[in-house]
Design brief:
Number of strands: 0
Mean pLDDT: 84
Shape: rod-shaped
Structural class: mainly alpha
Low-confidence stretches: 131-145
Number of helices: 4
Helix content: over 70%
Order of helices and strands: HHHH
Strand content: under 5%
Length: 145
């Protein structure tokens, strides 16, 4: 492995670890926010249950609470979606090949060279694979003329 290629792979591993850490932190933050949301609305419902109201009034307030809870939950989900999208935009790769394409797109010559060498290897394997399939099919009588 060439030194530049090794540095590139190290860079990939570091970036992937940062992405994983940020996503894990976001997941933990997500769990905390959902817990706070649930506790808050449990308190609201408990307060409503203890408040002396007529059945119709309680029913109307319960509908309003449910609508508000649904809006708050959707706003929370949207905020978290945006944060995940931000992390994904900063690290738009999850595999080595995606990382190489990303770096090559940014103009890094080493990544481009690695992609080209990998493409040559795939083409060489593809040609050898076609020959093996043809020979195997011919031997087994799988090829018809």
């Amino acid at each position: 492995m060439k030194p530049d290629r090794g540095n590139l792979y190290t860079e990939y591993q570091v970036a992937l670890a940062k992405r994983r850490d940020e996503m894990e932190n976001l997941k933990q933050q997500n769990q905390r926010l959902y817990t706070v949301h649930q506790e808050t609305w449990s308190k609201h419902y408990e307060t409503l249950r203890k408040t002396p109201l007529l059945r119709n009034h309680r029913k109307q307030l319960l509908k309003e609470f449910q609508a508000k809870k649904k809006r708050d939950l959707e706003a929370l989900r949207q905020t978290l979606r945006e944060k995940r999208a931000d992390i994904r935009s900063r690290y738009p790769f999850t595999t080595w090949n995606q990382f190489l394409r990303h770096q090559a797109g940014r103009g890094q010559e080493t990544a481009l060279a690695v992609l080209r060498s990998r493409q040559r290897e795939i083409q060489a394997e593809g040609v050898a694979g076609v020959e093996n399939i043809t020979v195997t099919q011919a031997r087994s009588g799988g090829l018809s003329r």
